[in-house]
């Protein structure tokens, strides 16, 4: 019996994957020290190769050669490009009651699996939960963009107390998210609307779509401060063009996420209200930031998000035709 499955979805991750696997090897050693205690558990690692064209498969094969046999390290290939397809494949392959998703730039602490499994067993109504995500920056971000970076690059440090996500529109990021397999299988469509970032497109939000389905079905979504991991962030992700494109992608996806949280009869009424509010905010922010828009990255991102949110209904309609 497998209690917990760690799923790593990767695309061309031959250079990033080894560090993640080394951290999980440390986790294997940590779990082994608990094998005679009440906290002992069995877990597996599944690497989903999402149509890579590099040596990702060879990296896995090399690691499998001397991997601890008590914690199986498995490889599977998912040819359909996109994080949503890779995660769905991971759910199918996973044997654990819980599935913890790591990206190939997420470095968990040795006790991450134990902390994740323990929390899930202690909270039987939790359909999904995230933990603390600390930034491992190649270059420290300038003070003026720290809030933008933290939100859009999935830095989560919300204190030492566990809490349930109750506020509308607030959910944990997909990096390091743990999902109860039952909650996913019973409520998440096999093919969701968002596929994840493909090519040059930075429109994602497939993680928020999945969590919305789970939350709408009555499952709880939680923050577990005992789960710690580090998100490696290269300097290129702090550049103005990247951040604006990232924010734009989130804005273009916004209408779908907004509507998912509402009952069908509420959606036609809410749509014009959201659009009018976005337009009002664009006008107000454009006036407020008119003298700094070309130099202030945070201001530029804020306005770009509002503009993308405003056209989101039309963009998504055209994309779905």
Walk me through this protein's architecture.
By secondary structure, the protein is α/β, with parallel strands linked by helices. It has 2 domains: 4-235, Spore Coat Polysaccharide Biosynthesis Protein SpsA, Chain A, CATH 3.90.550; 242-320. The protein has 11 helices and 9 strands. Strands 1, 2, 3, 4, 5, 6, 7, 8 and 9 form a 9-stranded mixed sheet that branches. The longest helix has 24 residues, at 297-320. The radius of gyration is 20 Å and the shape is globular. The protein starts with a strand and ends with a helix. The mean pLDDT is 93.
Number of strands: 9
| Mean of pLDDT | 93
Poorly predicted sequence stretches spanning 5 or more consecutive residues: none
The structural domain count equals 2
CATH class of the largest domain: Alpha Beta
Shape: globular
| CATH homologous superfamily label of the largest domain | Spore Coat Polysaccharide Biosynthesis Protein SpsA, Chain A
Helix/strand structural class: alpha/beta
Strand content: 15-25%
Task: State the order of secondary-structure elements, H for helix, E for strand.
Answer: EHEHEHEEHEHEEHHEHHHH
Q: In the CATH hierarchy, what is the architecture of the largest domain at level 2? A: Alpha-Beta Complex
């Amino acid at each position: 019996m497998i209690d917990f499955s760690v799923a790593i979805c990767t695309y061309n991750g031959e250079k990033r994957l080894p560090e993640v696997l080394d951290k999980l090897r440390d986790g294997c050693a940590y779990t082994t020290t608990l094998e005679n205690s009440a906290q002992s558990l069995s877990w597996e690692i599944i690497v989903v190769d999402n149509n890579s064209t590099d040596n990702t498969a060879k990296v896995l094969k090399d690691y499998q050669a001397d991997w601890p046999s008590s914690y199986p390290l498995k490889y599977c290939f998912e040819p359909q490009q996109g994080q949503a397809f890779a995660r769905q494949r991971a759910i199918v392959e996973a044997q654990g009651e819980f599935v913890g998703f790591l990206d190939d730039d997420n470095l968990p602490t040795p006790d991450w699996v134990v902390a994740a499994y323990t929390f899930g067993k202690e909270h039987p109504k939790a359909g999904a939960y995230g933990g603390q995500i600390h930034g491992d920056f190649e270059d420290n971000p300038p003070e003026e963009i720290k809030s933008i970076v933290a939100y859009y690059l999935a830095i989560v440090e919300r204190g030492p107390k566990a809490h349930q996500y109750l506020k509308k529109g607030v959910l944990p990021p997909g990096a390091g998210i743990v999902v109860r397999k039952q909650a996913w299988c019973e409520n998440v469509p096999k093919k969701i609307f968002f596929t994840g970032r493909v090519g040059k497109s930075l429109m994602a939000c497939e993680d928020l779509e999945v969590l919305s389905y789970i939350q709408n079905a009555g499952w709880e979504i939680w923050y577990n401060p005992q789960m710690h991991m580090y998100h490696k962030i290269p300097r290129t992700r702090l550049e103005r063009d990247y951040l604006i494109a990232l924010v734009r992608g989130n804005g273009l996806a916004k209408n779908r996420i907004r509507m998912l949280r509402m009952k069908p009869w509420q959606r036609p009424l809410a749509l014009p209200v959201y659009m009018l509010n976005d337009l009002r905010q664009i006008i107000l922010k454009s006036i407020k930031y008119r003298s700094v828009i070309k130099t202030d990255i945070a201001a530029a991102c804020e306005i770009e998000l509002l503009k993308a949110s405003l056209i989101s209904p039309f963009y998504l309609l055209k994309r779905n035709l």
